[in-house]
Amino acid sequence: MSGDLDFRPKMLGLVCNWCCYGGADLCGVSRFQYPPFIRLVRVMCSGRVDLLHILRALANGMDAVFVGGCHINDCHYVTEGNYDAIAVIEVAREMLRRIGIRPERVRLEWVSAGEGIRFAAIMNEYAEQVRKIGPLGRADGEGLDAAERARRIEAAARIVPFARLALTGRLRPAVRTEEAYRRFFASEEFRRLFDDLLGERLAISRVLLALRDGPRSPAELARSLGWSASEVARHLRNSSKHGWIRFDAARGRYALAGG
């Protein structure tokens, strides 16, 4: 269900202290209007935004998360945190896509302290986009009730430590240029690396949480998780190999090990 005309999104903005927050402040001083339902939280650098911040915001009822930072190569820190922000946002969006939540619910933009009118324009445009998408879990392509939505976000949150480790190594380009980052995160190489480093962990995390409420057959898991029979069989096999689940042959169901 998307495009509800009466829908007022709940939106969180995580904005850089040095640039984007300054743009938001100028926006207010200049009386440029943007929707009042966007709540801003100031962070010292967009590169300090963590995957867990985004997932917790969505788990706690936000319909979208906006991250705003300094323009590329204008970061106030020698670590060039806005490149870290790009990597985190792209991984977050891929995580959401794989758990059945629309990746457009997370957005990254650059706004300088002198761009109050740009900040207002972005906020108005993004608020309208989210309003058209609809409430979290109810948009076209989502169709998740509150319990399933929470379970899927929790599954993603459980692999955040592995994602942080991947982000320090292979899950980003070696060269820090805007073009290199744009090409890498739009490439098949990124999706392949995500599969290799995080894809199976995310799938197993979803299996374990699906079994938390009790034993299920492979067919029940396939319906619950939205996977094919072969996908379910592969992830059940890998989960069993690690000793996390067990199979009850008499009942034809899988359960958590020790459960």
Main sheet makeup: 4 strands, parallel
What is the number of helices? 10
Name the overall outline: globular
First and last CA, distance: 37 Å
Oligomerization state = single chain
One letter per element, helices H and strands E, the order comes to EHEHEHEHHHHHHHEE
How many domain units? 2
> What is the CA-atom radius of gyration, in angstroms?
20 Å
The fraction of residues assigned to DSSP E strands is 5-15%
Helix content: 40-55%
Number of strands: 6
Strand order of the largest sheet: 2-1-3-4
Determine the structural class based on helices, strands and strand pairing: alpha/beta
Could you walk me through the main structural features you see in this protein, from its secondary elements to its overall organization?
With 259 residues, the protein is an alpha/beta fold. The protein folds into 2 domains: 1-210, no CATH class; 215-259, Arc Repressor Mutant, subunit A, CATH 1.10.10.10. Helix content is 49%, strand content 12%. It has 10 helices and 6 strands, in the order βαβαβαβαααααααββ. The protein has helices at 20-29, 51-59, 81-98, 116-133, 146-158, 160-167, 178-185, 188-210, 218-225, 229-241; strands at 11-16, 38-43, 64-69, 106-110, 245-248, 253-256. The strands form 2 sheets. The chain has a 4-stranded parallel β-sheet, with helices on both faces. It has a two-stranded antiparallel ribbon with strand order 5-6. α3 (81-98) links the parallel β3 (64-69) and β4 (106-110). α2 runs antiparallel to α5. The longest helix is centred in the C-terminal third of the chain and has 23 residues, at 188-210.
